[in-house]
Amino acid sequence: MLDKIIQFSIKNKFVILLFTLVLLAWGSYSVKQLPLDALPDVTNNQVQILTTAPTLAAQEVEQLITYPLEQSVKTIPKVIELRSISRFGLSVVTVVFKDDVDIYWAREQIFQRLAEAKENIPKYDGSPELAPISTGLGDIYQYDVYAKKGYEDKYDAVKLRTIQDWIIIPQLQGIEGVAEVSTWGGKLKQYEIAVNPNTLNSLGVTITEIFDALEKNNQNTGGAYIEKDQYAFFIRGVGMATGIKDLENVVVKNRNGAPVLVRDVATVREGIALRYGASTKDGKGEIVCGLALMLKGENSSAVVERVKEKMIQINKTLPEGVVAEAFIDRGKLVDNAIGTVTKKLIGRCINCNFCTDIIFR
């Protein structure tokens, strides 16, 4: 049989050469369609449950959050491992499933159990959430947001973080294959209400009343509609606070017929959330960094290319003087790895001389 194949190949040189070229073209096309990556992803089939409780110590996190969550997910079928970490202000429960389990089915099972677990977790202790569908090797694209030279005074760490959260992230989250976009660095803007204890006591106001007043007086409501002639007028109650003055004018309670406002018992000001770290660039000041996580099972090369194309469009929408620039790009690592393998294959093909022998024999 082997002799016949050899004889046929010798007698039909051009047919074999044409067949070889077709195989090369087919192989090149297949290589481009393969989900290539620089590193093999060996992460098991797992789902993580994250809960933040900034006011609780590790012991309370274990007792009030981690333990109820573990008890709720133990009854899920096809679970092979259950582990958890309880730290100050953070609970992480990892549920590992069998390799043949669909990740979306697994997340749905856990999501159903979370409703039961939330009943056993105090409301002030945080709300459990599922981690994004990504792995430890899902970090494919990192970038920094900074102000150009001459604009440093115009864009501080608060404004850079605001640009990242409200301009860049919403656009990156819509990219196919991106599971989540995380942020670190900068200063998260928030409104702070600093109460005066002496004033509270003199006016007979409690902290609870301030919380309730702010919650009830910071929302929009609807009132159906009114028909008049051929028109319909929709009724809205606009009460959403838009700044410091709106918060200052919130009525806390009535005292002897006179309203007690927030500004009468507290000082409203702009502030920042509690910080655990910062990001700098070249030692020239603070910046904001972003991280794009790839969806589990996606082609990292294709996802990175989509992110890079989107970043070009995003930079056009940023305020003058602000730039978003990549400093870690998984696509470059993949290209270098492919280039190295390609060179080795070409070198072996040149040294083979199989095709030449067939043609000129």
Can you describe what's shown?
- This protein is an alpha+beta fold.
- It is built from twelve helices and 15 strands.
- The chain has helices at residues 2-11, 13-33, 58-73, 103-118, 157-172, 197-203, 207-216, 244-248, 262-265, 300-317, 330-352, 354-360, and strands at 46-52, 79-87, 90-97, 129-130, 139-147, 178-185, 189-195, 221-228, 231-237, 251-255, 258-261, 266-272, 279-280, 286-294, 322-329.
- The strands form five sheets. Strands 5, 6, 13, 14 and 15 form a five-stranded antiparallel beta sheet that branches. It has a four-stranded antiparallel beta sheet with strand order 2-3-1-4.
- Strand 10 and strand 11 (258-261) form a beta hairpin.
- Helix 3 (58-73) crosses helix 4 (103-118).
- The chain starts with a helix and ends with a helix.
How is this structure best summarized?
The chain has helices at 2-11, 13-33, 58-73, 103-118, 157-172, 197-203, 207-216, 244-248, 262-265, 300-317, 330-352, 354-360, and strands spanning 46-52, 79-87, 90-97, 129-130, 139-147, 178-185, 189-195, 221-228, 231-237, 251-255, 258-261, 266-272, 279-280, 286-294, 322-329. By secondary structure, it is of the alpha+beta class.
Structural class: alpha+beta
Total helical segments:
12
Ends apart, CA distance between termini: 21 Å
Helix fraction, binned, reads: 40-55%
Summarize the helix and strand pattern as letters: HHEHEEHEEHEEHHEEHEEHEEEHEHH
Rg calc: 30 Å
> What share of residues are in beta strands?
25-35%
